[in-house]
Amino acid sequence: MKYTKFLAFWGKAPCTGPSGPEQLGDCVLYEKHQSPKLGVDHQMRLGRRKTSANLQLAIVSLLVVPLLACRSRHENAPSEDAMAAAAVAMDAALPEPKPSTGPVRIVYPAAPGSFVKLRNELAPSVVHLRSTTKVKGGPADLFPNAKESHALGTAIVWDRKGYLLTSEHIIASAPEIEVVLGGQRYPVKVVGRDSKLDLALLKTTAPVSLLKPVRRGDSDNASVGEWVLALGNPLGAEVTASAGILSSLGSTENESIARKTISYQSFLRTDAKIDVGNSGGPLIDTSGAVIGINTAIATHSGYIALAIPINRAAAVFAMLEKNGEVTRTWLGVFIHPVTMNVAKERRLEVATGALVSELVPGSPATLAGILPGDVIIEFDGQKVDHRSLPIIASTSEVGKRIEVLVWRNGAPRTLILRSESMPK
Fold it and tell me: Does one domain contain both 82 and 167?
């Protein structure tokens, strides 16, 4: 009688029969009812992990029955019925496998087995920008034999109105710009620029059928260590991709929103490689949502790629669309993150908000009555933390009456602030 339904070979030829216990040395038990979707190697691994009492009993039975059979050759050989009964008993001892439920769902923030699907889904939204005149120092300079010497870099399709977002530095010196969509070139108009954030808003008259907007994520909810994919279209030939993780979410310590020297460029940082010409392309998470716009590479401390948080880009987009420029307001405070210890000291139930450490005399925050040690929880009806407060406070409407909710002495307090344009 064959025992191959209880045995699987690990690395050699299949086990073929129980003529002697010496044949069992290279075999392991496995679940004979495993889904056909599972490969043989996977079945082997499943077999090695089975350590239940029933399975151990089956192994013992499998070893003992052939031994008894060998011994019976010199004594009384068991009947065929007895051997069949032993086989049924061993079959019953094996645990019943659970039915296959299809492919395993990859849950954020785990990396998928491949980024091919993510890249292909986003590719139509990652477009190539070119100048009508030849470009020096552009992406084509990296490739001596490249034919496209008009290449500027990458942009993303923001909406079906024809708006595109890109890095301001790649279009700064181009007199006229074109976008390549569906293999055709279409003229592009510069709607507005923000050199502080290195962002430019463009608009094209390309057919709506060619415009596939990106899906916007939430950069405030991004996490250090999560997988990201940086895409670009430097030469118009193909959409390139590089994978990595988020290394940092930008400035978190002693961030100033006091004067124009504030670093609005609190970039996301990643080890995903961003080549020349990929500036303006999207940085996406494993769900396919854009959480940043690739902008630059810092080399003073080694290789690191930077991206504008998409929440900041979205706030600036609204201003550029409306006015063509960015008029920033200011608050006049220096802030820190609210740690668990800070929350405990101030009897805050949740470690959230922005801790005020210092104020600028005569600033809107000072005039509103904000004090050092206050925790700003809400600004103009929006919950804030040390990352979101700077961009929200700096993009408010000039002269607007704003309610600011602070936590002071273990209790909330609402203050009224009048926004002012940032001093020059």
Answer: no
Q: What is the pLDDT of residue 369?
A: 96
Count of Cβ atoms closer than 10 Å to residue 55 Cβ = 18
Which of 35, 149, 169, 247 is flagged as catalytic?
Answer: 169
**Catalytic member of 150, 167, 194, 198:** 198
* Helix, strand, coil tally for the chain in percent (to 5): 25, 30, 45
Catalytic position from the list 256, 279, 363, 394: 279
What is the count of structural domains for the chain?
3
Say if residue 180 is in the same domain as residue 296.
yes
- SS3 call for 132: coil
Instruction: Decide which of 277, 306, 324 is a domain's last residue.
Output: 324
Task: Give the pLDDT score at 76.
Answer: 53
pLDDT, residue 60, reads 52
Domain that holds residue 54: 7-93
The DSSP-derived string for 347-411 is T-SS--SEEEEEE-TTSHHHHHT--TT-EEEEETTEE--TTHHHHHHHTSPTT-EEEEEEEETTE
| 164 close to 157: Cβ distance less than 8 angstroms | yes
The region that residue 232 occupies, defined by phi over 0 for left and psi between -120 and 50 for alpha, beta otherwise, is: beta
Distance CA 167, CA 293 (A): 8
What Rg value do the Cα atoms of the chain yield, rounded? 32
Average pLDDT of adjacent 10-residue blocks, the chain of 424 residues: 38 40 36 38 39 51 51 52 58 53 49 85 94 73 65 92 93 89 92 89 94 93 92 90 89 40 64 87 95 79 78 89 88 92 93 94 95 96 88 87 96 95 82
Residue 100 confidence (pLDDT): 46
Q: What pLDDT score was predicted for residue 63?
A: 53
Q: Is residue 2 part of a domain?
A: no
Residues 6 or more apart in contact with residue 176 via CB below 8 angstroms: 131, 132, 133, 187
**CATH code of the domain covering residue 114:** 2.40.10.120
Tell whether 165 is covered by a domain. yes
Is 198 part of the annotated catalytic residue set?
yes
Same domain? 339 vs 279: no
Q: Report CA torsion sign: 349, 354, 357, 359.
A: negative
111 and 71 in one domain?
Answer: no
In a domain? residue 263: yes
pTM: 0.63
Predicted pLDDT of residue 9: 34
Contact 77, 69 (CB under 8 A): yes
